Amino acid sequence: MAEKSAGASRRFRIRHRGRGAQVFIYLGKQLRMFVYQNDWKVLPMAALIAGLVGMVIRRRLFVNMEGSLMGAFALTCVGIWNGCFNSIQVICRERSIVKREHRSGMHISAYVFSHMLYQGMLCLLQTGVTMYVLHLTGVQFPEKGLFTPWLIADIGISVFIVSYAADMLSLWMSALSHSTTAAMTVMPFVLIFQLIFSGGMLSLPKWSAGLTRYTISNYGLRVICAQTDYNNRPLVAAWNTLERMQGQEIGGTVTLGQVLDLLGDKENPAVEEIRAAEVGRVFTLGEVKAALESSVTVKRLLETRLADGVTLGDVLGLLKADRLLERYRDVQLGGVTTVGRLADALSANEDVAQLRDRGVTFRTTVGRLLDLAGKDRVRDYIQRRAMEASFTEEYSNTRENILSNWMTLVSFALLYALLAAVTLEFIDHDKR
Amino acid sequence: MVVLKILSILLLGESKLGWAALKLPFIAGLWHMFRKSGVDPRWALVPCARTYMLSRCAGREPEGRVLSVTEFLLLPLQILQLSQIEAGYLAALGDRAETVLLLVGVVDLALTFVQIVYWVRVSAGLTEVYGVSRRWIVLWLLFPFIPALVYGFNAKYQPAWKLEDIREELARAVSGGFVEAGEGLTVNLQKRTVTEFFQKKTLLRDIHLNIKPGHMVLLLGGSGAGKTTFLNAVNGYEKADAEVMLNGGNLYKQYKKMQFEIGFVPQQELMREKDTAEATLLDAAKLRLPFNVSAARRKERVRQVLEIFGLTPARHTLVEKMSGGQKKRLSIAMEFLSNPSLFILDEPDSGLDGVMARELMQQLRKIADMGKIVLVITHTPDRVIDLFDDVIVLAKDSARTGRLAFYGSIAEARAFFGRKKMEEIVRAVSGRDEGGEGRADELIARFAEVQHG
Question: Which of A330, B17, B28, B117 is most buried, taking the most CB atoms under 10 A from its CB?
């Protein structure tokens, strides 16, 4: 009996495959499933999604702030969508099989790690397809990347990491769910949470803004915005709105005092430019003569009778004014000043002071006002100021910023994979 | 007034005093219903717990858990929604008040939906237990105090079964004795318990037996008698308060080393449908065979097993394309690869016609004849009973615990139960609510006497 027991004990000491070797068993299985279980369909799906998104963002991505933000959001959504739908069913659909295999010596860590590798390959392929389709749809990637010589490759890395993190999140959801129905019920909530709390597209109430720190979409948006150089693109929304309002009439009553006070405000940077504008010019006596000769009013004055048969023109002729004007035609008159100086002079004038309360009613259109101020100048000014106001530190186009966001996303992916493994370790406790 | 309302919420679950008053006849009705079901009636006075107990009486314990937790979560929400309290915290919160109010409202709405759905489920259970029309569900939903009073006070309404633990004395009285570890499989199971919702349940107790190598054993029992629980405890996957010895090795202490000594074939064909039979076996071989077995030997072993189970012609067929019988054989073949000494099969013949089922059982007989122990659960034992050596009969006693009602040869079983067919034995040990004779307690006690004198 003792001999038998010893023999049995020896027999039990046989070594089976460890975690490392098991990873390859499951990787092989998953690759077969890729072919037989139609997992390959995710690739044409990725192409289709990228095509749709590409058509929307192709002319906007690197043009202005709004286009960059929208494009970054769209690319992040593509990544999250692809990632989530890659793995949401992979564990729950074979949960009972996993349980049986776990009973037969399968290590959960090996199983989850094989999924990590397989899903990584799938995400990589999808990203390749996505970026290629974006290129085909005409999205231009004009600048060099900060990490590779091609910006498309840099953005591709971001899209890959975003999809991989989303993939691992879904893998965890799949490990938590006991059936595919349950997983597909949870999925929309996960997606909605990611989209709402991306932190860039929707303005969130203060209490919920902190939640953006925990979403993949937030870091995806940050990194792609940074790569599209969001902060150095013009913000065109304000100008576009103003331009659309060109036909709209505006009007009101202002007093001379109000106008002079506005123009006299030396602290106001917006007025500073107007104050610096030059008014008036130097002109010659010849130019005065030509202007007088062409003026109908002057002509009428010259024909005015001063006495019987004598007109002002006759008197001036007797005085040889014509010849005098001709002789001194190059004498310069007048001068140049600035709006500021003129406004200051008017404000200091006592006679003008008495007229300060006199109101002037005006009615004009936005377009005429823009013409008056100079359309190009106003557009440049508004776009520059709006861009400054929309500057976002998190979207800085620096290697450090991009790398930090990549690292955060990779940490998310690893955390979710770990959670998936830990969750699946409890598979033995499934309801019997 | 606020204090009164809070007390009303906490004790009766209602803030409006009129509705709260209607809870009193409800509680009175529950008091008597609990008595009828063998539950301590004082539970009717405890908020949340009374709902859980009522769900247990309805045979809907999982639903009861959700319902009582939901009720518990709704209590603070109800208090927060009392106008006087609401005004206080809204003033304190300022701008955030609207958000908080919205959140409270949304959570309240979601929980109320959950409560309605689960309350319907529990009500459906009550109509089944009391054998009344399903229309009672409407009353349970709208005016629960009416059915509670009727079920509670009217002697005509009696539950089909009781939730009692009063037979615990009997359970103690027939505790089995320890079996000396011998050749083959020795099981000394004192207890297998689970804790669910703060309650400890005994699923199995006092099962002591020894199965010799080369024996093919039938595991019989009514629904819920603990057959699968017993198998899981025997194969060490779900450990019990037990000692399981297999060929001299303690399975519980050396589980990791001995797990390949046991082949467990589950009821369903748990294999990947899109894999071929050969690929399924090759992967299973990689998991189950020792690390140092070469690829060539592994392939050879797979070829042998395919041959033994008659699967060679279907080796390149996808699992989903295989017939029911082929799938069953493949499932068994997966476990056979590692040449285990104990084979456990949970309803391997389910879904197979008589001919195929017999063929499969003959295959198992051959495995037993190789000197292995084969333990099988089947619900149609009589068509293959000649292939079995022994039978284990498990029965659910009045405390709803799985017990050993018999273990011995087929002939001994027929003599012990006075029945020729195995299906008649199952009927004898099954409860009356399951269409059986309800003799479980008597037979358990009798077998304990026979086994231990």
Answer: B28
Structure tokens belonging to residue A152 = 């498309």
- The tokens for B20 are 């709260």
Task: Write the DSSP string, B102-138.
Answer: HHHHHHHHHHHHHHHHHHHHHHHHHHHHTT--TTHHH
Q: A14 to chain B: which residues are within 8 Å by CB? A: 257, 260, 290
**Residue A20: its chain B contacts at CB < 8 A?**
none
CB contact under 8 A, A12 and B274: no
pLDDT digits (tens, 9 = 90+) for A259-271: 888 888 887 776 7
Determine the pLDDT at residue A432: 52
How would DSSP label each residue in A127-142? HHHHHHHHHHTT----
- ∠ CA B345-B348-B352, nearest 5°, is 175
Burial class of residue A183, CB neighbours in 10 A (0-12, 13-18, 19+): buried
Pairwise CB contact (< 8 Å): A21 & B264: no
Q: What are phi and psi of B392, to 5 degrees?
A: -110, 130
Contacts of A385 (CB under 8 A, 6+ apart): none
Measured CA angle at A3 (ends B301, B367), to 5 deg: 35
Mean pLDDT, residues B268-296? 89
Chain A hits for B181, Cβ within 8 Å: none
The ranges assigned to domains in chain B are 2-153, 168-452
Residue-wise DSSP of A26-62: HHHHHHHHHHHTSGGGHHHHHHHHHHHHHHHHTTTTT
Residue A321 in this model has a pLDDT that exceeds 80: no
Q: Domain segments of chain A: what residues?
A: 12-234+392-429, 239-280+336-386
Residue contact A104–B259, C-beta within 8 A: yes
H/E stretch holding B200: strand B199-211
Q: How many other C-beta atoms can be found within 10 angstroms of the C-beta atom of residue A381?
A: 15
- Alpha helix locations (H) across A91-150? 95-103, 108-136
More confident residue, A411 or A231: A411
Q: Kindly give, in sequence order, each residue whose CB lies less than 8 Å from that of residue A395, ignoring residues fewer than 6 positions away.
A: A222, A225, A226, A230, A231, A401
Tokens of B308: 């033994």
Å between B283 CA and nearest CA of chain A:
6
| Predicted pLDDT at A319 | 67
In chain A, residues with a C-beta closer than 8 Å to the C-beta of B283 are 25, 28-29
Side chain identity at A237, as an amino acid letter?
A: A
Interface confidence (ipTM) of the complex: 0.71
Instruction: Grade residue A124 by pLDDT with cuts at 50, 70 and 90.
Output: very high
Instruction: For domain B168-452, say whether CATH 3.30.70.1650 is its number.
Output: no
The dihedral sign for the CA sequence A254, A259, A260, A264: positive
Size of interface A-B (CB pairs under 8 A): 93
B266 with A207: Cβ contact below 8 A? no
Tokens at B254, concatenated: 């050396």
Would you give the DSSP letter of residue A238?
H
* Least Cα separation, residue A122 to chain B (angstroms): 19
DSSP state of A296: H
Contact A100 B266 (CB under 8 A): yes
Which of A5, A11, A12 to substitute to test the interface with B, most B CBs within 10 Å?
Answer: A12
Chain A's closest residue to B293, CA to CA, is A16
Give the bridge partners for B249, in sequence order.
Answer: B246
pTM of the model: 0.73
Sign of CA dihedral A238, A243, A245, A251: positive
pLDDT computed for residue A307 by the predictor: 66
Q: Which residues of chain B are within 8 Å of residue A432 when distances are taken between CB atoms?
A: 228-229, 232, 238
pLDDT digits (tens, 9 = 90+) for B130-172: 999 999 999 999 999 999 999 999 999 999 877 754 445 455 5
Going by C-alpha positions, the residue among A343, A339, A344, A345 that lies closest to residue A278 is A339
